[in-house]
Design brief:
With 504 residues, the protein is mostly beta strands. It has a single domain, classed as Porin (Beta Barrel), CATH 2.40.160. Helix content is 11%, strand content 53%. The strands form 2 sheets. Strands 2-3-4-8-9-10-11-16-17-19-20-21-22-23 form a 14-stranded antiparallel β-barrel. A two-stranded antiparallel ribbon has the order 6-7. β21 and β22 form a beta hairpin. α3 crosses α6. The chain is elongated and about 90 Å long. The N and C termini lie far apart (72 Å). The N terminus is likely disordered.
């Protein structure tokens, strides 16, 4: 017989992780083109140019290109539009948000000795939003796959005795007990059993096999996905100019994740003989993380007209903690409703997460003070992404890491930007292409984006405005097991960015 566990049912620490999957690896290791208006208007093609606060995050040698100490502040407004196709339904959704995109400064210390090899030293401090995690989409339509399969797959192998309430035991206390002693799958089995979605094959405390109370047929599903949050990076930069042609730099970066996600599924059916006709299933996730990475880079003036750049970024090593809550409500035309509300916050053990490293090759052509064209080529092997447990000597994430290696691939990015100057005005534009990190190239497709903007030089103060837009197709699964149907989503992401920079 299972042990009765007494708790206040507000918080637990589970012995096992929640069900991380490959999509989590992509979510926390991907980056977008963010930063100053000039940087974004040129699609981030700055690896051989420098002289921009956001370019420091691309190539640390960028700080050494600055002629004078400078500070800048950038604010962006984001709009994400998702056209979601699921089953026989189409849902269209738009979501807007505003965020601090960039804030930083660089200090230039010129060497007064004109004959010295080191012409100047620079110190930079910069915050950059690396990924806006705000997202929202809806999927509704009729399918022949039910959420009952999610509960069934989690339940198989779990003794019935663990899922049954004992005298004096509440939903909250047993849910907490299962989380602390059995883990995530047992909690899902418990929800399905107490919500009458699944039943044991035999009424025996030792039973470990289960069947669904729903009959086959058509299921009308309404699924909502909402998330908000960000990945951010704070860089401490040091740079130097050697002679007239070589710029070198290094970054020490601290990273943070602040992320919330909610998924809600409402499913109905009128299938003959079905014991459950309505299911409402809500999941909430809160993720916090902090990490560290380093970068080195260089820019070389081949001639007054040509520049080359090279930068290397280490993996980012994260420490991540997560919290979840769940709620289930079912309805039977014959038996009425059943509410399974544990009112418990699952607090999971912290785990480690390593993103892949990245290298960037860059080139630029400068036409005197009239304008320029710049190109960056980057490579990042997402199959090297790894999860690791801090508190379990066994490899808790072995299966997930193997799945990552089999599912993800190395991806290239190409960024092209140009600028044309007319007196105090600068006109800018850019294009970028980012290869899918998935081998199937359908779970997340290739990204194509365009950008444009302008800047005005008031002297000591500069103002920049930029607009960028990109499109990307994706097919996320509703759940990692059981109800693995995918919604086909056409995503269009756009943003406006304003930057104010000034000399110090």
């Amino acid at each position: 017989m299972k042990k009765i566990f007494i708790t206040m049912a507000v918080c637990i620490t589970a012995i096992s992780m929640k069900a991380q999957d490959v999509s989590d690896a992509i979510l926390f290791s991907s980056e977008n083109v963010t930063g100053t208006a000039r940087y974004r208007a040129m699609s981030g093609a700055f690896g051989a140019l420098g002289g921009d606060l956001s370019a420091i995050g691309n190539n640390p040698a960028s700080s050494a290109v600055f002629l004078n100490s400078t500070a800048s502040l950038s604010i962006s407004g984001y709009t994400i539009s998702n056209d979601s196709f699921y089953g026989d339904g189409l849902a269209i959704n738009d979501d807007t948000s505003g965020k601090l995109n960039q804030l930083g400064d660089v200090f230039v210390f010129n060497n007064r000795d004109e004959n010295a090899a080191f012409k100047k030293f620079t110190l930079g401090l910069n915050y950059n939003l690396t990924q806006n995690l705000d997202d929202e989409y809806f999927a509704f339509g009729e399918t022949q796959n039910s959420i009952d399969q999610f509960f069934l797959e989690n339940a198989q192998g779990i003794p019935l005795d663990l899922l049954q309430l004992q005298d004096g035991e509440s939903i909250s206390s047993l849910y907490s007990f299962l989380g602390e002693t059995q883990g995530y799958a047992a909690q899902q089995a418990f929800l399905g059993f107490q919500g009458f979605i699944i039943d044991p094959e035999m009424d025996d405390p030792d039973n470990t096999t289960y069947i669904s109370n729903l009959t086959n047929g058509n299921f009308l599903q309404d699924y909502a996905y909402r998330s908000n949050g960000l990945n951010g990076k704070f860089s401490i930069n040091g740079g130097a100019q050697i002679n007239d042609d070589l710029y070198l730099g290094v970054n020490l970066n601290t990273h943070f994740i602040d992320y919330e996600r909610q998924t809600v599924l409402f499913e109905t059916n009128n299938n003959s003989g079905s014991g459950i006709n309505e299911i409402f299933f809500e999941n909430n996730l809160r993720t916090f993380g902090n990490g560290f990475s380093a970068q080195v880079g260089g820019i070389y003036k081949v001639s007054p007209m040509f520049r080359l750049g090279l930068s290397l970024e280490t993996p980012t090593w994260y420490n991540i903690s997560e919290e979840t809550t769940q709620y289930l409500d079912t309805f039977s035309n014959d038996e009425g409703s059943a509410v399974v509300n544990p009112n418990v916050i699952n607090i999971y053990p912290e785990y480690n997460f390593k993103t892949p490293g990245k290298y960037t090759l860059s080139g630029a052509i400068l036409f005197g003070k009239q304008g320029l064209i710049s190109l960056d080529y980057s490579y990042k092997d997402y199959s090297n992404t790894e999860f690791d447990s801090q508190f379990n000597s066994s490899n808790t994430f072995a299966d997930l890491n193997n799945n990552i290696k089999n599912t993800l691939q190395g991806a290239t990015s190409i960024n092209i930007g140009g600028e044309y100057r007319i007196r105090e005005w600068s006109l800018r534009g850019g294009f970028r292409y980012q290869e899918s990190p998935y081998k199937d190239e359908t779970t997340i497709g290739d990204l194509k984006g365009y950008s444009a903007g302008f800047g005005y030089d008031f002297g000591n103060i500069k103002l920049g405005l930029a607009y960028d837009i990109y499109e990307q197709d994706r097919s996320p699964q509703l759940y990692s097991i059981g109800l693995t149907n995918s919604a086909n989503i056409d995503t269009t992401n756009s943003s406006f960015t304003a930057t104010l920079s000034f000399g110090l």
